[in-house]
From TrEMBL, chain A:
Keywords: Membrane, Methyltransferase, Mitochondrion, Mitochondrion inner membrane, S-adenosyl-L-methionine, Transferase, Ubiquinone biosynthesis. Transmembrane segments: none annotated. The lineage of its organism: Eukaryota, Viridiplantae, Streptophyta, Embryophyta, Tracheophyta. S-adenosyl-L-methionine binds at residues 118, 154, 184-185. Its main location: mitochondrion. One of its GO terms (cellular component) is extrinsic component of mitochondrial inner membrane. Pathway: Cofactor biosynthesis; ubiquinone biosynthesis. Its EC number is 2.1.1.201. Belongs to the class I-like SAM-binding methyltransferase superfamily. MenG/UbiE family. It comes from Zingiber officinale (Ginger). Methyltransferase required for the conversion of 2-polyprenyl-6-methoxy-1,4-benzoquinol (DDMQH2) to 2-polyprenyl-3-methyl-6-methoxy-1,4-benzoquinol (DMQH2). The keyword Oxidoreductase does not apply. It catalyses: a 2-methoxy-6-(all-trans-polyprenyl)benzene-1,4-diol + S-adenosyl-L-methionine = a 5-methoxy-2-methyl-3-(all-trans-polyprenyl)benzene-1,4-diol + S-adenosyl-L-homocysteine + H(+). This is 2-methoxy-6-polyprenyl-1,4-benzoquinol methylase, mitochondrial. One of its GO terms (molecular function) is 2-methoxy-6-polyprenyl-1,4-benzoquinol methyltransferase activity.
Automatic annotation (TrEMBL), chain B:
This is Ubiquinone biosynthesis protein. Residues 1-82 are annotated as: Disordered. The keyword Mitochondrion applies. It is found in: Mitochondrion.
Length: 312, 300
């Protein structure tokens, strides 16, 4: 409200021509949004050297980042799902549905969902496999259904606990399908060539060394296995970008404060989104890890991007 | 490393059935420029789908069709790039025997992937899975006509035109005879609006191939007419075959023979039809003139 009140005053000045009012309003609002967003970003960038560890500049920064990420998710774990719904206005559900429809799960699949602590993606995979389409299968596939294994891997035990609770709530108590595993995306405990699918939803930007995570993904996938990554990415439309920046830097941390009681974590979240490589650069990194047929799809104009690759 | 576009897979016979031989000689190949509407790009053996340029893909809602997509592949000379298409082709071919049991569906593709030794997750990366399977298999069925044109030429030399056409269509339909049980499903998949364009393209290609193998003497007037008529004969025979329970599809071949003879036996049929039309037109013209003269006396 302070923002608007400062700019509103000149509009009622007698010195302005009446027709210039709307144009001036728009221009001044945009100018303020842009400069405020830039100020925020610059301020944050100068203050937080730890964010530059994405390229691995200093060891100390990496440690800090790991600890910071650990702290962030420990403190937001209980309100993680609620905050997802609030900040994305419920859209994250559609994004995850899109991810699953791109994946195309099948019965007998061995799937690994990394950084999927609260289980959103894994539950969707399971429901997709159990869904109507596969009920018309013939006998030959019934025996493979028992072999469907979905592994949920997360570095943070609090998030895994939330996931386990949600699994019980939904009735997935049959432990032969879902497995909760604590592990690091950069050093997975699974054998090489054991997974049909690998998904990572909103997790790869929190990883200290993205190349290592991609290499690990390549290692655990079977021949023909698919890698899918759903991540908040770069949004480039000229005018809406200002609104998006304003929403990210001014509204989301405030929401975090009100709902989860943690403004710092959500500020870290928004900054880490800006620090993450652009869609094309990230796609190139996936190619460098050895994947074939790499492509990405922008959702909501680039707010979210789904990158996919195939191991052959 | 350069970022180039990647070609996913192509529907023509080139990729799946490696061709020997070269581009067809140009005599009588190109369609006459009279009706640009019906231009079917004709470059030798098949219709090439050009590689997709690098594009960004956005969608307002995840469920809508995406007009753009970003694609990254390794540099062009990388063997990995061909590997994807090759693996995909092998999966499609391995899926064919399973269609008898599972139909033309994703399940058949998954079974095919398992046979090839590749994780069935690869099926998820194929857009329009069942339609792709149908298209790829159909283009494989057309390969005897394309590949073995030279051998066929000897067989066909001594036959009349209608016999040649009958034999060629029969060769093509016999390829799909083993899979006739689930063929109606394949046809219905191809009839879906999203898949119709490819269906038409493939059909046009096939008829073109058949005409060339039969020794098309290509005159301007007849080009479209011949292909349209033969396309009609092919479609009706295919549908007839679906309900034919005679041993070895004897009734279908009789049906086919009769249709082709009706349409193409007399070489002069088309020319005669033209004369007839002229005569009728002239007659009609005279009648109209007389009629007008009756109404407006004194007019020419």
């Amino acid at each position: 409200m302070r923002l608007l009140s400062v700019r509103v005053l000149p509009l009622f000045s007698r010195h302005l021509h009446p027709l210039a009012l709307p144009i001036n309003t728009l221009r001044s609002v945009l100018h303020t949004l842009r400069s405020r967003a830039e100020t925020n970003l610059q301020f944050r960038r100068r203050k937080n050297h730890r964010l530059r560890d994405y390229r691995g500049f200093t060891e100390v920064s990496e440690e800090e980042k790991r600890k910071l990420v650990g702290n962030v998710f420990s403190s937001v774990a209980s309100k993680y799902d609620l905050m997802n719904d609030l900040t994305s206005v419920g859209l994250h559900r559609l994004w995850k549905d899109r991810l699953i429809s791109k994946l195309g799960p099948f019965p007998g699949m061995k799937h690994l969902d990394v950084a999927g602590g609260t289980g959103d993606i894994a539950f969707r995979v399971l429901e997709s496999i159990r869904g109507v389409g596969h009920k018309v299968m013939h006998d030959s596939f019934v025996e493979t259904e028992g072999q469907t294994q979905i592994f949920i891997c997360d570095i943070n035990p609090n998030m895994l606990n939330i996931g386990k609770k949600r699994a019980i709530e939904r009735g997935y108590t049959n432990s032969s399908y879902l497995h909760f595993v604590e592990g690091d995306a950069e050093a997975l405990s699974f054998e090489g060539g054991s997974m049909d699918g690998y998904t990572i939803g909103f997790g790869i930007r929190n990883v200290t060394h993205i190349e290592k995570a991609l290499a690990e993904a390549y290692r655990v996938l079977k021949k023909g296995g698919r890698f899918l990554c759903l991540e908040l990415s770069h949004f480039e439309f000229p005018i809406f970008k200002e609104l998006y920046d304003y929403y990210s830097f001014s509204i989301i941390p405030v929401m975090g404060e009100l709902v989860a009681g943690d403004k710092e974590s959500y500020q870290y979240l928004v900054e880490s989104i800006r620090q993450f490589p652009k869609q094309d650069v990230f796609a190139q990194m996936i190619v460098d890890a050895g994947f074939q047929s790499v492509e990405y799809e922008n959702l909501v104009g680039g707010v979210v991007a789904i990158h996919s690759g195939l191991k052959l | 490393m350069k970022i180039k576009s990647s070609v996913r897979y192509q529907f023509n016979g080139d990729r799946l059935a490696p061709q020997k031989g070269t581009m067809r000689p140009s005599g009588g190949d190109s369609p006459p420029p009279l009706c640009p509407r019906f231009q079917i790009p004709h470059r030798g053996r098949g219709i090439d789908i050009p590689p997709r340029p690098f594009q960004r893909r956005t969608s307002a809602s995840p469920a809508s069709a995406d007009p753009f997509r970003g694609t990254v592949a390794a540099a062009e000379g990388d063997p990995g790039r061909g590997k994807y298409e090759e693996t995909q082709a092998r999966v499609f071919i391995a899926a064919l025997p399973h269609t008898a049991r599972l139909g033309w569906t994703e399940s058949a593709l998954i079974a095919g992937a398992r046979d090839v030794g590749v994780s069935p997750a690869i099926v998820g990366s194929i857009p329009r899975k069942d339609a792709a399977l149908v298209e790829v298999i159909k283009s494989r069925f057309a390969s005897p006509i394309i590949d073995q044109r030279d051998e066929l030429k000897n067989e066909l030399k001594d036959l009349t035109l209608s016999d040649r056409l009958t034999k060629l269509i029969r060769i093509r339909l016999e390829m799909q005879a083993p899979y006739i049980a689930k063929w109606p499903q394949a046809l219905s998949i191809q009839a879906q609006p999203a898949n119709l364009p490819n269906n038409f393209k493939q059909r046009a290609e096939l008829i073109d191939e058949i005409w060339h193998a039969a020794g098309d003497s290509g005159s301007d007037f007849d080009w479209y007419l011949k292909r349209t008529i033969l396309g009609g004969i092919y479609s009706t025979t295919e549908v007839y075959m679906l309900t034919d329970h005679s041993p070895d599809f004897r009734d279908t071949w009789v049906f086919l023979d009769r249709r082709v003879k009706d349409a193409f036996d007399l070489q002069k049929t088309v020319q005669e039809a033209a004369y007839l039309a002229e005569a009728v037109g002239a007659g009609v013209g005279n009648t109209v003139k007389g009629f007008m003269a009756g109404i407006f006396p004194g007019s020419k």
